[in-house]
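Researcher: Next sequence.
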Amino acid sequence: MSSPDQAGGTATATPGPLLDAAAIRRTVTRLAHEIVEANAGVEDLVLVGVQRRGVTLVQRIADAIESFENPPATGSLDVTMHRDDFERRGLRGTPQPTQLPEIEGQTVVLVDDVLFTGRTIRAALDALNDYGRPRMIRLAVLVDRGHRELPIRADIVGKNIPTAREDDVRVLLDEDDGRDAVIVVPGGKRS
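Model: Next structure:
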């Protein structure tokens, strides 16, 4: 939809978020139920968030699970040094802490905000190997935007969003960004 601008022309309206705070809350609740259902409970279950927003999502999912089950073990995983594009990209930001409970023989659910090329998840799988051998690893993501470069898929998806490869999909979470929203910026333009 367009609206007149001050010069009498037409300005393109800014699209609203694909997911607002209420939709993210409902999606996190659904993810929590699907994770518990897939694991037949919380026994031997460890939720591991990929730094940074995956860690926030893990806490929200664990809180949602606690409303109907015992809380699962949780942890955080930094994949910076395991990325296959580290040399090309260089170090962006400060590596975040990895804090994991015992994962040997456990069912680990890796949680991330956006699944795109699959390279972050490949790095997460490599990083997990440094800490033990889980019985099983599943992947849960808030948003799957497609455009995979590796044969990786999520087991549990909050929302599939069709995007152009050059689009920028942003997950904003109140704890990190001051508000909850999922937005797509066409063509990767920074606002």
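Model: Confidence is low (pLDDT under 50) at residues 1-14. The helical segments are 21-39, 53-66, 86-89, 119-129, 174-177.
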